């Protein structure tokens, strides 16, 4: 058994694998290539089935590709060429390869190569030194890249012509190194990163990240962090900002720790995964607070918030996400600021998915968190907290979370990442403009294809959330996109539970390249919509 990129290549030995082979056989050689009659069972058992050994490619429990090998003469090709042996080299010990089938959404070279690699291993184990094949003319170029050599006349039918070919171990080994390089180049060329993190970064950011590490006590590092702080404050209109080595989770823990110094109760809003996480942050720090919670993506109105603030005058702080990353929903920051100002409430925001993605004005916001990745277009690893007031160290707060210690030490009270700071500095100098029009265009393309998209005036231009039809499994869909080089967000538990996937437009992207990736997503969606074997009811 061989394993690569979560695809397992193995000899089929389970009844369920054979059943999937028969169905894939039908899909390929009845529905796609018209070689056999249709039937109501939608399965095709090969006439050499009892002689065949099947090599399969599997993702989880799904057979996504197969190829068969048979060493018992007469071969299928014997029946098409009366003098088969005359075309083969001297001392050939052949086996026959047949029934190459790969599900459409997984085609492109990598799976085919993996099947061939496992097949060659099997043939060598059995003592064969050559494999013959009837190769479909549509894939002749791919076969030749892997070392197959054509011989003899075309066989088959006018509707389904094939070219006899053979493969030797020597030719495969010679060709496979070149083919691997070709695959790597192709995968790099066809790589589309639509993740909310890690995001695509520029060459300047990569260079800064790769520079030699410098002591966090060096003047150069202090100069860089001061410059980064100034750029971040100008970007957001915040008064102060601290930078720690960590993630958005750490940044929100720092906010929660700071809120423990306020004696009043709070209010936390949640209509998605990350709002619910803020509730957990507040609970872990034993903060006293009320909540307003709604089903995912359902708006929490300003009237509801004001009613709560008016009813509970003891509320002294309000904490919410700016963009609910799990759905793309955006809370109205300016109106929240006005409302909090009216009631004398300190406003705290999680802006991890909005700073660098859209305009964010943190003037008069008490505390706000963000990160070095996502919209800022650098590598993950730096937790960022904006604050309105000067802060002093507080012995009641754990040292690493104490924003006051960061402020009095130039944001470097402990070991810092010079590489992360240099990369963030480079990223801040080339932020992408807001992409509202591109966001709308993407939404329209998905909707034209029949997808359900969470969109509207209150949604971020950096995150497109697609609710898949229940007949399409989001994990299988995301896996298929990954095979095409398109990386979307789908593997988080909250997305899998809802059968959603997301396209994040963050970091350094060319609009034309984004639209190429969107086109592939639409094509794969259309394939899945037509393919019954991918439906949840049959999986």
Automatic annotation (TrEMBL):
Source taxon at top rank: Bacteria
Cofactor(s) named in the record: pyridoxal 5'-phosphate
PROSITE patterns xref list: GNAT (PS51186)
InterPro entries: Acyl_CoA_acyltransferase (IPR016181), Aminotrans_V_dom (IPR000192), GNAT_dom (IPR000182), PyrdxlP-dep_Trfase (IPR015424), PyrdxlP-dep_Trfase_major (IPR015421), PyrdxlP-dep_Trfase_small (IPR015422)
Species name: Virgibacillus pantothenticus
Protein name: Septum site-determining protein
Keyword Lyase annotated: no
Keywords: Pyridoxal phosphate
An example Gene Ontology molecular-function term: L-serine-pyruvate transaminase activity
GO biological process: glycine biosynthetic process, by transamination of glyoxylate
One Pfam family from the record: Aminotran_5
